[in-house]
Every structure is written in C-alpha cells, then in structure tokens.
Amino acid sequence: MGNCCSDEAGHGGAHPVGPAAAKAAQAASAAADRFLRSRGAGASTQIELSLSASNLGDQEYFPKSNPMVVVYSRRKDGPLEEIGRSEVILNSLNPSWTTKISVQYQFEVLQPLVFQVFDIDTQFHDVSEKMLKLEEQDFLGEASCLLSEVVTKRDRLLTLKLGVSEHNLPNPSKFGELTVQAEESAGSKAIMEMVFRCSDLEIKDLLTKSDPFLLISKISDSGMPVPICKTEVRKNDLNPRWKPVILNLQQIGSKENPLIIECFNFSSNGKHDLVGKIVKSVAELENMYHRQNSENFFVPASNAQECHSKEVLKSQLYVEKYVESNRHTFLDYISAGCQLNFMVGVDFTASNGNPRLPDSLHYIDPSGRPNVYQKAILEIGDVLQHYDPAKRFPSWGFGARPIDGPVSHCFNLNGSTYQPEVDGIQGIMSAYISALRNVSLAGPTLFGQLISTAMAIASQSLADNQQKYFILLIVTDGVVTDFQETIDAIIKASDFPMSIIVIGVGGADFKEMEFLDPNKGEKLESSTGRVASRDMIQFAPVKDVHGSGASTLQSLLAEIPGQFMTYMRTREIQTVS
C-alpha cells in the first residue's frame, strides 16, 4: 500500500507485453517498493469514534448519573492500553458525548476495543477528565468489539450491550447500550494527483545506468523524514517522466507542510544512490505547476565542516500536472456494503510427510496445538472473516488422491461433490482435518486449476452484479510445476475482483516461487503474450507463523486494500449503492 503511483493500465483488461526493458523496469519498481517499506513507510487511516449510550445503569442504584466513557485498545494477548476519554456529562442516563476518540485503522491486524463507562462523583467535577482516578468512580458497564466490526457496518454504526467483566455490580442485568459510530478523516478523501518529470539528471558514476525513481517523505514532529510515497523506476533515463503520484491530505497533514522529494538511482542490491533532493510543500508544488517553474535538485555538502551548506545541481524537477479531487476510500466501499470473501487452497502433496507422524507439516497434535497450515489459515482468516457477513468460505485441497479416485488438483475440502463452502473459520479447520483422514497425499504441486476454480466464482459474482471482492489464500510446502498454466490463470484472474496470497510453509527452497510475487520478480507474461492488468498476487515463505512470520502475513494482508482500490479505480467503479 506504500506505492502511491496510479495504475494507468487496466481499463482494457490484460494488455500486450512491452519490451524486455519494460519488464525489467517493473521488477526494479517492485524492489524500490521494498526500499520504501524498509524506510518505515506504512499505510493506515485515522478514524474518529463518536459515542453515545442509552438506559445507563439501574434506576434503583443510579437514579442520577454523570457518565464518562474510557476507550482502550488491546494488543494481541496483551494488557489494555487507554487511547482516550470522553467528557463528563452531568445528570444523564442517555448521554451523547461530543469528544471524538481517534484511532488508527489498520486493515491487516485485529484491533480489539474496550469501552468502560463510569459515573463520576460530584466531588470530582472540577478535576480534568484525564486526571480522574477510575478506581474512585462507580462502574456503569463495559462493552467490547473489533474496530473492523464497526467500519463494516452500514453507516459505520454499531450498538453494543453494556455488561460487566471483573467489576461487581448489585444488579448485573441492567447496563444499557453503547453506540459506536466511526468516521473516516476527511483528509483521507482529499486527493492530490501530480505528475513529475526531471531533466538532466546527474549520475556521478559513469559505469552505472540511470534508473531513477522518486521517494517522497514528510517531516515528523521530531524532525525525522517519514516516507509516504514513491514513483516507479524509469530504466536508463536521464530525463524521466513518471506515472501520476497520488497523495491525500491525511498523509501530509497540510498543504503547507514541507515534503522531501529525493531522486534515487536504482540498484538491484538495494543500496540506491541519492541523485539529489528538493524540499517543497504541496502548495509550492502546485505553484510550480501553475507558473511552469522548475526547481534544482541539491545534495548536502560532503565536507563535514560545511554541514549546513549544499551543492546545487543542474538537474531539475518539474510538475507537469496538478489536480485536486475527492475520491472514495477503501472504507467507503466496505461500509456501503462491498464484501471481502475469503477462499482457501491447501497443499496435500506427499512432500508434506505422513500426517500420522509428528514431523509432518499436516500432523494434528492431540494437544490442540495448530500445525503450520492451520496457523496460516487462522492468522489470515481471523482478519478477513469480519468483512464477510455470511462467513461461507470456499475451501479446496490439491495434490491428493481421494479414496478410489485419481489425483485431484482441486477438490472440495468438505468432501462435497458440488458445494465447496464451509461455515466459518472453524468450518475450514473441521473440513481440513476430515480431508486428511479421507485422502492420500500425492502430487505434483499444481496451482492452475485451483486459481481457475476460484476465478470462476469471482467471475460469476461479477456477472451477477454482486458487491464482492475475493481473496484466495494458497498454503503450500513446495514449488509449483505447472508454471505456465499458473501464470496464465493469474493473468486471467487479474481482470476479476480477486487477490491471491501464496504462503510457503516448511523447509523447502522457495526461490523458484518468487516469480509469483511482483515485489521480487519480473512482470508475468502469459503463453499468449499478455501481462496482468494489475498486481494482485503475493508470495512469501513463512517458517514461524507466530514469530517473525506473523508480521510477514500482516504485510501480505496490508496489500489487499490497495489491490482492491486499484481494481475499483481502473474499472471506474466510483460509487456503490
């Protein structure tokens, strides 16, 4: 989600592949994406929560109430962390607080929220809300939810029953209700689209090709640069013109805030050389466009005694286009009813080992400890399930021989002949365990039929005008052998509302699988000379799903909203009903 370049392809579906240099540029741009992420770039949206309550407490014990609500977040398996408090409203059992509680929405992680309501004693009315000691106040009730449960509701409004946890109340049957409404920051909708070009770039190493890209950073309160956006890499070009760059007001804070625009010469080893940089606000960039001015790049002086000086270069930056507009966001589509549907494909090839033995990747531990396949499905599915109200998940296996049958490269995990859906994440777990008892592990590892089957569901949904986007998770322990069939299926699937996440588990060498990930390989080319209309597949090997692998899975999930929005924008799906 870090790359802010618009996807200008896609209106006509898959398109003819360009020359080899264009494919090399695609690979370089993907590698530059990793550079952006390594510099600390992230993607999130600021949400403001509005809170109200009704029928607080019990009239017998709380005939009058001065309520205040405290909001907490909870990290996975961690303690509560307070993120905000409302004001105190005097003498009300049906308060509507005006204080907004700000929280950063992150699609890729579960974000539990806990709301506790307190009756503030009159003796503390002159005390600031932030200074109030909660243990000295009367507890009126508690509610909890996930942030994703709020933003997926129509109008982003969720009503929760207030209850009790460790607090002891005289009558725990009457706590009332708490209503939570989420509003996305207006700045996330205010879009600024710019086209940059450079002239006379100075590449000091004459033996190095000029493969420039721009990295745009804002300056944090601490004075440190925080990357927010990058362009694609232009191969062997001293006068590059990049695809449009899209920023929103939330990213930059204000049009008057300075931005650092750095030009790097791409290097495949990740050590990109700084060509030069400029410091300009968006307002100044807009002025450059209207006046058709340019700005010279500079580099800091190399001499330590001249640390405050800089060397001005002849290389110049131009703003060829500047347009402001308002656009729908990912959460606009979601709260208007668009669903994300989870689909799963599980590798049942013999290389996983005998499921009855503890060293098998498919071993079902009697203690209940999940194996690597179960962990991967749970980590991804626990996030995605909240964007699908029906929670009916198509689930398949591949690379196994059903009883008295030939090897199947796409069979329904639940054993049904016609119906691949199961109920909920636990339904996937049950179907998976049942399949292990009813199939013989075989091979080889083929993805083509599985992807085509999932694509058929997405295609039918599109034909039925359903507001759905599909995410297919494939968990495998080996390298695919049907490379071209897999590539052909991926390229066809890029025209439909779906994304694919491939996770490699076990100790295999997955280097040959990197062709699946546009962040690591060249742009995929079909057997008929077509390339994907957009990036919609990712691959990553994960050895420890609950350790460092957990952050890897989160980074894969973090790409989904951007892939979703690219599909919506390139298909000109601007509104949803």
UniProtKB/TrEMBL annotation:
<keyword id="KW-0677">Repeat</keyword>
<dbReference type="GO" id="GO:0046872">
    <property type="term" value="F:metal ion binding"/>
</dbReference>
<keyword id="KW-0449">Lipoprotein</keyword>
<keyword id="KW-0106">Calcium</keyword>
<feature type="domain" description="C2">
    <location>
        <begin position="174"/>
        <end position="297"/>
    </location>
</feature>
<dbReference type="InterPro" id="IPR036465">
    <property type="entry name" value="vWFA_dom_sf"/>
</dbReference>
<dbReference type="InterPro" id="IPR002035">
    <property type="entry name" value="VWF_A"/>
</dbReference>
<keyword id="KW-0472">Membrane</keyword>
<dbReference type="GO" id="GO:0006952">
    <property type="term" value="P:defense response"/>
</dbReference>
<keyword id="KW-0611">Plant defense</keyword>
<keyword id="KW-1003">Cell membrane</keyword>
<dbReference type="Pfam" id="PF00168">
    <property type="entry name" value="C2"/>
</dbReference>
<dbReference type="InterPro" id="IPR037768">
    <property type="entry name" value="C2B_Copine"/>
</dbReference>
<dbReference type="InterPro" id="IPR010734">
    <property type="entry name" value="Copine_C"/>
</dbReference>
<protein>
    <recommendedName>
        <fullName>C2 domain-containing protein</fullName>
    </recommendedName>
</protein>
<keyword id="KW-0479">Metal-binding</keyword>
<dbReference type="InterPro" id="IPR000008">
    <property type="entry name" value="C2_dom"/>
</dbReference>
<feature type="domain" description="C2">
    <location>
        <begin position="27"/>
        <end position="160"/>
    </location>
</feature>
<dbReference type="InterPro" id="IPR035892">
    <property type="entry name" value="C2_domain_sf"/>
</dbReference>
<comment type="similarity">
    <text>Belongs to the copine family.</text>
</comment>
<dbReference type="InterPro" id="IPR045052">
    <property type="entry name" value="Copine"/>
</dbReference>
<dbReference type="Pfam" id="PF07002">
    <property type="entry name" value="Copine"/>
</dbReference>
<dbReference type="GO" id="GO:0005886">
    <property type="term" value="C:plasma membrane"/>
</dbReference>
